[in-house]
Amino acid sequence: MRNNIIQHIRKECTINGISNVFFNALVAWLLLKGGADLTLGGENNFAVDLIATGFILPFIVTLIIIPLNKRQLDKQALSPITLNQDHWMEGLLAKFPQGLFLRAVLFGCIGMLLLAPLTLLPLWLLGIEQFTPLAYAIFKGVWAGAIAALLAVPMILLALNK
Q: Which of 58, 67, 117, 136 is deepest in the core (most CB within 10 A)?
């Protein structure tokens, strides 16, 4: 990949990560402040919230990132790339559906079925079963920012693929 593509991906990952940390933490705090602590199971369940966010966040981010990067490609601000079938991630991306909506659903499913459980499992194994509203808002913001930054890479690669 050319240097400008790598720099572009770094910049987009940073922007997506930081903006999602801020907005997800803020929304969580505004919804939860003054409420009861959240628990891994039970009535004030954070597991369900992480699983739902695991779908919704990548779904929405896909609907934003891919069109924005395709627009930059159309304006020739970025160069097209060809996915390398021999690289494991690029080979998987080459098998993604062509439609934006289907790609968004697929990224949402990856977030919900892979990333959320990979977050909940260590919490459960470490015995972290409760968060105060503030602690959860911070945790969720950082988690959402990491997910958005991580998934921006394959989304951009899909957008720039010839």
A: 58
DSSP secondary structure code for residue 36 in this structure: P
| Burial track 118-127 (b if 16+ CB lie within 10 A, e otherwise) | ebbeebeeee
Question: How large is the C-alpha radius of gyration of the chain?
Answer: 17
Rounded Cα distance, 2 and 74, in Å: 18
**DSSP-assigned letter for residue 113:** I
Question: Which sign, positive or negative, has the C-alpha torsion 27, 54, 56, 22?
Answer: positive
Quote the strand ranges of 8-150, DSSP E: 38-39, 130-131
**pTM metric for this prediction:** 0.94
CA quadruple 93, 97, 103, 107: dihedral positive or negative? negative
pLDDT digits (tens, 9 = 90+) for 68-97: 999 999 999 999 999 999 999 999 999 999
Could you give the CA distance from residue 154 to residue 162 in angstroms, rounded to a whole number? 14
Number of domains present in the structure of the chain: 1
- Please count the other Cβ atoms lying within 10 Å of the Cβ belonging to residue 66: 19
Domain containing residue 147: 3-160
